[in-house]
Amino acid sequence: MEKLIEQFSFGLFFWQLLLFIAVLLLLRKFAWKPILDAVEDRESGIKDALAAAENAKKEMQNATADSERLLQEARVEREAMIKEAREMKEKIVADAKDLAQAEADKMIKQAQLAIESEKKAAVADIKNEVATLSLEIAEKVIKGQFSDKAKQMKLVEEMIGDIKLN
Amino acid sequence: MEIPTIVGAGLIVIGAGLGIGKIGGSAMDAIARQPEASGKIQTAMLIAAALIEGIGFAALFAS
Amino acid sequence: MHGFFETDILSDMQKPFYVKVLLVVTLLLGINAFAQEKDHSSSEEKGSLKTEIKEFIGHHLLDSHDFTLFTIDEEKNEHVGFPLPVIIWDDGLKVFSSSKFHHGESVAEVDGNYYALYHGKIVKTDAEGTINYDEDHHATNVKPLDFSITKNVVFIFLVSALMLFLFGRMAKSYKTSALPKGIGRLLEPIVLYIRDDIAIPNIGKKHYKKYMSYLLTVFFFIWIINLLGLTPLGVNVTNNIAVTFALAILTYLITTFTANKNYWKHIFWMPDVPVFMKIVLAPIELLGTFIKPFSLMIRLYANITAGHVVLMSILGMMFIFKNWIGSPLSFGLAFALSLLELLVAALQAYIFTMLSALYFGSAVEEHHDH
User: Fold this and answer.
1) Which of A128, B16, C1, C321 lies at a 20 to 30 A Cα distance from C251?
2) What CATH number corresponds to the domain at position B41?
3) What is the pTM assigned to this prediction?
């Protein structure tokens, strides 16, 4: 112990204390603070990045699920649309058919009507013609017959009888 | 150094040696039992050994 | 023990291999020792060599006022090195070069006062350099306050500058990137180790930040200066009690001045023990606060000193043996010990830092119910 106390050098103690404190203060300002701050920043940065990556992963999963769902929905919708379209097509076709049928029926009817009226007109025409002809014939006959009275009468009667029959 | 001082120093060294040896041995046992805690055990071992060493040195200088 | 004696009785064939080796080595050593006795028949010469080595070790461990790299001839006082400034306070500041002492051979005369070196210390003396002794053979000369830039102070300066340079550069490298460059890559894991495995577990997450600067500085200071002490230039700094005292007193002061109420309560009025025990415990606990830094001081000092003494003694054995078996043996031993000293250099820095952190931790520990 005595030896230790004897060996103790105040000068060395003084310099050691002085220099150590100076180094401590300088390093604290210019080294330890920036180093520890930088390391801490980096660590928090890594932590944030990891959290962000985890978030992104989750979001990715969400997005995948979303897209999957959307796809499913789209598929269902497509199915529905196709189905609807098919139905519509069928309906249109059916409608068209009906319409065509109706039109055709109508046209046939019109044609029949037209034919009927033509026929009537033709018949009427023929009747008129026949009447005219009959008149002309009758005139000529009358002209020939008027000479003979009895004959005339007989003729008239016959004719009237004919007309009644018609 | 006179003879009693040397003997005293020897005794101190024996005591400190036994103490540190015991710590080391126990630490080995502990590490063997729990290898995953080896880091903590080593730290505790070093601190305990350092404390005994400190007392040993203090006694050596006092003698 | 029993087995050891038994081997002598056993025949040669039954002896295990290592016993044979031991026997051969012992015999060779014995013969060599015998031969050596004959060579240097005057054991006086050997004794003087021993004392010379002892003196050299003692000298190596001491601080000195000049930077001597090595000595060419002790007799002729030829040394390679350079003098350092001597600063003393003796009725005013006196500064002169240590070359005036001529390595302790002569008396330096400054402003009419005479100073001499006595066992590495500056003492006031007269023109003839007389040293007065008391009954216990201690010098009674006046010792002026010595603030000289000694060899160790130069080294402390160098290490401080080195640390400022290294860590300054390391800090700068963080400005450009998040990862350190160059030396910082080596140092960063150590810095992180001190933070994560020394400071945080011992002090706690809440308070550790304000102690980090001290812990880092003290760790790297002790480590670097211990390592430099192992180089051939070998200027030991931590084997000076003054240096370790300065470090320990800083730990003590920081502990004391940052301590909270709970810490003082545990010292002066230990909770949860009977009143009588409180009174008994208070002085013990108070003494404990001084013993803690004291043991820090002694541990570092003693470990480094002991390491150097043993290492140099083994190196010295090389010159005592001076034969083909002893010298390689001591060389091998010295090599192994040097490796051990490398470990000790780091270990002592670690222990000092660790225990400082432990003491700081106890100073800021929050009150919790037992």
Assistant:
1) B16
2) 1.20.20.10
3) 0.72
